[in-house]
Structures are given as C-alpha cells and as structure tokens.
Amino acid sequence: MAHETQRIxxxxxxxxxxxxxxxxxxxxxxxxxxxxxxxxxxEMITAVTKKFAEEKQEAxxxxxxxxxxxxxxxxSSTRIGSIKVADATSSVARLMRKSEKKQKRKExxxxxxxxxxxxxxxxxxxxxxMAGLSGVKGRKRYHRGPGDSxxxxxxxxxxxxxxxFMSLAELAKLMDRKPAELIAKLFELGMMxxxxxxxxxxxxxxxxxxxxFDVIPVAEIGDDAREDxxxxxxVTRAPVVTVMGHVDHGKTSLLDYIxxxxxxxxxxxxxxxxxxxxxxxxxxxxVTFLDTPGHEAFTAMRARGAHLTDIVVLVVASDDGxxxxxIEAIDHARAANVPIVVAVNKxxxxxxxxxGTRTKLTEYNLVAEEWGGKTIMxxxxxxxxxxxxxxxxxxxxxxxxxxxxxxxxxxxQGIVIDARLEKGRGPVITVLVQTGVCEVGDSVVAGTxxxxxxxxxxxxxxxxxxALPSMPAQVTGIGGVPQAGDSFIVVKNDQEAKDISVKxxxxxxxxxxRLTHGRITLDKVFDRIKEGQIxxxxxxxxxxxxxxxxxxxxxxGRIASDEVKAKIIHRGVGAITESDxxxxxxxxxxxxxxxxxxxxxxxxxxxxxxxxxxLYDVIYEVEEDVRKALEGLLxxxxxxNFVGSAEVRNLFKVPKVGVIAGSxxxxxxxxxxxxxxxxxxxxxxxxxQLVSLKRFKDDTREVREGFECGIGxxxxxxxxxxxxxxxxxxxxxxxxx
Length: 737
Known about the structure:
Blueprint: H1 8-14, H2 19-28, H3 42-80, H4 85-114, H5 117-134, H6 151-156, E1 159-162, H7 168-175, H8 179-188, H9 201-210, E2 214-217, E3 235-236, E4 240-245, H10 251-260, E5 277-282, E6 285-290, H11 295-303, E7 311-317, H12 324-335, E8 340-345, H13 354-361, E9 376-379, H14 388-402, E10 405-406, E11 413-422, E12 426-435, E13 438-439, E14 443-446, E15 449-457, E16 466-467, E17 472-478, E18 487-491, H15 494-514, H16 525-530, E19 536-543, H17 546-557, E20 565-573, H18 578-587, E21 590-594, H19 600-609, E22 613-616, H20 619-631, E23 637-654, E24 658-671, E25 675-680, E26 683-695, E27 698-699, E28 702-704, E29 708-713, E30 724-733
Parallel strand pairs: 1-2, 4-6, 4-7, 7-8, 8-9, 19-20, 19-21, 21-22
Antiparallel strand pairs: 3-10, 5-6, 11-12, 11-18, 12-17, 13-16, 14-15, 14-18, 15-17, 23-24, 23-30, 24-28, 24-29, 25-26, 25-30, 26-27, 26-29
Helix pairs in contact: 1-2, 3-4, 7-8, 11-18, 17-20, 18-19
C-alpha cells in the first residue's frame, strides 16, 4: 500500500502512467490538487486504487467476452467448413445477443403492463368530448398493426408530424382548418403572420396547442418517403471506417497498402478511379474505408447531420508519438461518439518506440487492452505490411461487438460523400448506401436536388446493376450537385422526388436566413440554461503557447454552476483554423482564442457557419466572461468586425518617422481610423493604431483590396517582411433577453 505522504508524481509511477494523466484522474474524482508535486492524501490514493480496480475488472470482463467470441468463431469455422469466417462470427454473435433481446422485451412488456387502463379510457373520453365541441378532426399518422394495443390510437389522435419552417397554409391544411383561423389565433397571441409565412418550431407548437394538437417534428423533409427496416430481413453489413491522424504518420500509406493487397481488386494498383470510398474484401470479412482528407472532412459531414462512420482508425507514428493533429483527431472522434482503434505505425524503423507511444496516449484516456484499458491498439508497418492483417481482424471484431445490420430488401438510403461536375457526364455523385438497395433507373433525391439513376458504378469504376448496404458507388443522372453529407434516398417516382426537392430548397433558404439565431453564443448561454436546453457549455481553446492553453483549460474546466458547467472539447496551439470552426459548428461550441486570431479560411467559415469566436489577451478576462455567462450577468458584448488585411512586402526606414511597411492589401480594406494587429506565423505580436497610411507619396483615408500602400504603425517599429497587418472595428452590442 502506498504511503499517505506520497506525492502525486510518485503515485503515477506506481501505476505506470504519466503525472498529467494521474493529475486528471484525481481531479475527475473530485479532489483539487495544485500540481503533480502535491501530496496524495490517503483518500486520494484509496479512490484512485478503487477506480483502477474497477476499470481493470470491467476490461477483464470485456476481454473474456471477446475471447469467447473468438473461440466460438474458431469452432464454427471448423464445423461449417467453407463458410466465411465473417458469417460464422455473425451467427455466434447473434446467439449471444438473443437472450439479451428477450430480456429487453420482457422489461418493455412489464413497463407497458404498468400503465393503467383507466388513464386510456379517460383520455379517449376527453378526446371524444372535445371533438364534439370544436369539430377538430385528428390526423392519424401511425398505422395500427396486428400486435398494437389501444395505446397506438391514443398516440395517433391529434398528433401532427410537422417540419420546421413549414408555411402557415401547409399547417392549416394538416389541421383541417382555414388559414384565416390560424392567422387570427396568432394575432391573439401577439404575432402577425400571413398565409405564406414560414413558421419556426416554437410558433408551430404554440398555435397547434391552441387548437388541441400535439406536434412531432419530422427529422427531414422526405423522411416519410423512407421505407422502414424489417427485423426479419436484417443482415450483417460491413463497418464503415475513417482513417485519421497527424500529417506524415502514414494514413495514405496504410490505405494504399490495403488497396494494393485487396484480392478482389485483382491487378496491382487496385483502384482505377479515386471516389472517396472503397470496399475491401478479405478472408475475415468486409470493410468499407472512407478516404477523406482528414478530420476536417469527417467533421464537415457531421456538421451537416451525417453520421456515417462506424469506427475511426487513428494512425500514430511510433517514432514521432502524439502530435497536434493526433489530438485533434481524438477530439473529433470523441465528439462524434465513435469508437477508436489505434494503429501504431512505422514499427519497422530503428527509432520506433511503440510502448512510449502507448504511454503518451494514456494522457488522452486511450489505454491499450493489454494494459487493462478498452482501446484496441495494433502495431503495424504500412511499408512492409506487418500487422495490417491483424488490424483488419480487429476492425471486424469491433464491428461484431457493435452488431451492425441493415435491411437490403427496401428502397435505398444513404449519404452523399462527394459530388462534382464532369465534362460529358454532368453531376457525378459518390454515395455510401447505408440500408436498402439502389438500382439503375431508380428515382432519387440527394439533398435539395433530384433525378433518376442513369449509371451506377462501384469503387473500381465497374458498372453494376445495384448497390447494397455499406457499398460505395458513383451515380449519374441527378439534376444538380448536392453537398457532402446530404442524405440520399430512393423514392417511388420522379414526381415525389421533385416535390421533396422543392420543399427542401425552401426550408434550406429559410434556415440560412435564420441561422444566426440558432447557434449557441456566450450571450445566449444563460437564456438556454433557464429554458433547460443545455447542461454544459462546450468550448474550444486555441492559444499562442501550450502553457497558456494549459492554464486556460484548468481554469475554465473548474467553472460550474448548479445547472451547467463548462466543458473543453478541444484545445490546441496556433491560429484558429477551418478545422476548429467545423468542430464548433458540429458540436455547438464556442471558440476561445487567446493571443491568436482566425486565419483567412477560418474567418470565412465563421461568417458562413455563424460560430461564436471570442478573442482575448488576458486570462482572467476569459474566466470572468465565461463565469458571468453561466450566471447570466454578461455585460454588453464588445466584438471585433474584421475589415481587411495587408501583407508586409518591404520595409523603409524614414528619419524622424520610423519604419514604414510597404504593403499589399490582400483582403477587404485598410482604413486610417481602424484598429490593427500584427500577425506573425499565426500569432499576434502587437495591437495598436495606424499613424499613417499613404498611396505613393500622398496621404489617404482608405486603401482597398488589390492595391499597394505604405503603412506606419504607432509605437511599433519591429516589423518584418511577411507580417500580416489586420484591420478591425470594435463594435459594442447591447445584450438583449
């Protein structure tokens, strides 16, 4: 047993983890040590020991379960001879889950029986009375099946399936009322509306309740055109895997090796045309890989509501360890709640240190199975191929535990992975079928565009008649180019496809107009807390140095009130990038920048996605603002509007004046009255005012994009060629409730 005066870093050595990881574990357990040099009290040691024992026991049970699966697969393989291992594994997994499903049905039946008949009878009597008084006709949106009870009728009566931003006329038709009645009712409630006005969900719920209706929002227009899966027809499908990791850690090499050794592809080179996804078949089973540019594309799809990845393979170089993009990939995968399989690459190198890499990953709560954790880690070499067979086997095993199934007997449904215009072919769309089947000639809707499938090819550009679940395919014949992440569904006919497309286009335009009211901002936090909409404020931290980010993270992580707490979902060093904005949009988070600013691409995306970005120079101001936001005491917002930027291309020393920067305005404009900041290598080095602005030898008030100018900065002469001068306006906005 550890001594009660033992320090935290000594306790960490005893448990074979880093000091930082131990410090985080202790703080998660409710203690507040200052640093790794703090004394670990007896209570701390007892709590840590108990936590590790529980996790070890849980991991042991999971490993025993996986071993049972492996043994069962081995026995099944011997018994069924030539049947594929993947099919045998699936059948065994189904047998093991059969008892669990029976137990769940029993629990649901018990809950159902606990509902009293009196409540149903009273509700039916009330509905009949109200219907006689008001003449309201209920729209039944659920069909009663042979096994349904009277409760199906109870749910169906006076329940409307609606989509946000539907017009007042459409809502009136659903309710079987005249539009004038709804307009009059809304006027009584203090809202002016016209027959063609589109209503948000709050307004729809409010007016529907006045007429005795309950509403249930439809996830997406056209959702009722989807066919439901039947449990009888469900079959095991291949897992969809996204490979992520740091630059130069071997993501592309791993994918290339798998492609070249894919026996189905036949010849070397494997894929004749890159379409963003491909299917690999091997002795252990099938796997579909998404070949995306990295976590940016992964999160861009998630930001649009597309959840198509089942497993993330995190590639970490054993000779380089955990790097910034590795941490980003971990955060993006966790934000999407996707299991991570770690591939420790480059083990063929003399400087490889797989164990050191595993140790570093424990700081990010990725603990290998052999160390008592839950994360599958496999040593591989994408160059020699060592360990890749085992990696594929582990991916299939993880998929077996997830029990991935789909119904191939219904009309196809999937996600758009990529779309482009090709000369001579028109719009070419890459889709991943998630369930059902797509065939040549089918009428389809992809996002806001529609058409029917003219040609269908697989990932090797070979024409096919149909695409089954987890199969990537290229489709032509669509009348436009949808966005990556848009849904793709097969419908009954072209007319239905056109109707869905038109309605989606109308709703998307409405959403773009109202988007600014939808994103979470620091100003709106307290309002959301009062309404019970949020339990935690998600933050993304970016700073100029790691020390500042660490202090900020610790400081903000401890802020909490009775209703809500601050949660750091990602932190990093350097300028705010496009990836950070995408993660914020997908996770409904606020970006905090300390001594850094967004780069040009990120700035464009901030405007497009309407993400709240706050920039600070003093740590206590960050803490104060976040704390006040949680307490509802936020003062009027002081924001910065980007005006323009200029690149320093030459320097001129002028006697009695100082250094003048010969600059080229790359974006927006530079105004004599604007505040400015100097950005060097993505970090802010100075903030201040202009002292002079000239075009040639003449003073000028403003210089626009595409022109050269001379810029003098007040009290700052340490300029360098390549510096970026950003101009901004300070705007104060009163906070409204």
